[in-house]
Amino acid sequence: MTDGKRRRGLATASALLGGVLVLSACSGGGDDAGNDSGKGGGASQAQVDEAAAKKTSEAQIKITPKDGTTNASINNSAAVTVAKGTLTEVKMTTADGTAVSGQISADKKSWKPDAQLERATTYKVTVAAEDSEGRAAHENASFTTVSPSNSFIGNFTPDDGTTVGVGMPVSINFDKAITNKAAVQKGITVSTTSGQEVACHWFNPNRMDCRPDDYWQEGSTVTLKLALDGVEGAEGVYGVQQKTVTFKIGRNQVSYVDAKTKQMKVTQDGKTIRTIPISAGSPENKTWEGQMVISEKFKETRMNGATVGFTDDDGKGEYDIKDVPHAMRLSTSGTFIHGNYWAAKSIFGSANTSHGCVGLSDTKGAGDPNTPGAWFYNNSMIGDVVVVQNTGDKTIAPDNGFSGWNMDWEQWKAGSAL
């Protein structure tokens, strides 16, 4: 073979070989693979995905709050639900492994803990469910509840289930200063079966009282609803309470202390049922004037002048009586109406001699039920009104005890945040 023929032959062979290589590359790709799969030679990705989907449970588990949540509610957290399936197991523990008791609903569609959660605690939730085909599904979450430093509560009075006098307001003292008063007030509802309009008044960022225009109607029932869970009372500080409280209003008893006549008229439904001689504050230590409300009752208690600013030159209390009988608090600052056994009986009804309290004749030991002090104590309840008149002193401040009745209705409503 000549060189020319040889070169032509190699070129022809190369061309043929190149064609084979190109053809092999194309036929070895998607076309031939597609043809092979169509002939049952292998599974496509779509078919693989479809087969896997048929093995996956349709049950859809939802855990509230979401995994990683902080400042979670202590009331409504850890709610577990399932769609397209039923729950088979729910486990909730604290971070240290302590189990939290809870119940799966009768229809096996939901679960919740049996009791309120603790603040500043991390919880872990593990859930298993299955769909109608018995295929299992699982879900896990971890969250942390709101801490005391990032939450607030309202300490309220009166207590649930109590019976109180007609002057007892709903008084709420918050453990954190509230800056978003409107939001917090919206979460608090006070209503009464008497139909009286009730308005709330903020005395300061920590205290809000609620009352009607006039005293509560006797025999009515008052309901306080706290829906503060999750309400932001101040920046980064959230409410945690979700509670309903009811209390009853007793008979309408209002007592009138007249420092000028030195007599007290006890009235029920506007009718005088007894007149009692009293001794009010001396000219040097006059008793506040105005409407006051009995907030505490003590059969016997200690009264030390040093605690309310009455001290001698040595810094000791001007008086220290460790067994004052039948004492009932009228103000936060220390005004009481109480029995007095140490003074001469002749002063009651004739002289004002106290350091600002209203005194009634009594005996040492609080054991004689026939004394005026004992009678008034036994016939009074928390929330009864005592109106003090003609002392010559100024009217008690509305936030000193439960003395908000000394504000007229328009002034009272002006203190609302809504």
UniProtKB/TrEMBL annotation:
Pfam families membership: Big_10, YkuD
Pathway(s) annotated for this protein in UniProt: Glycan biosynthesis; Cell wall biogenesis; peptidoglycan biosynthesis
Residue ranges of every copy of the L,D-TPase catalytic domain listed in the record: 253-389
Leader peptide range in chain numbering: 1-25
Tree of life domain: Bacteria
An example molecular function term from Gene Ontology annotations: peptidoglycan L,D-transpeptidase activity
Residues at the catalytic site: H338 (proton donor/acceptor), C357 (nucleophile)
GO CC annotations, alphabetized: extracellular region
PANTHER family named in the record: L,D-TRANSPEPTIDASE, L,D-TRANSPEPTIDASE YCIB-RELATED
Name of this protein: Lipoprotein
Species per Swiss-Prot/TrEMBL record: Streptomyces viridosporus (strain ATCC 14672 / DSM 40746 / JCM 4963 / KCTC 9882 / NRRL B-12104 / FH 1290)
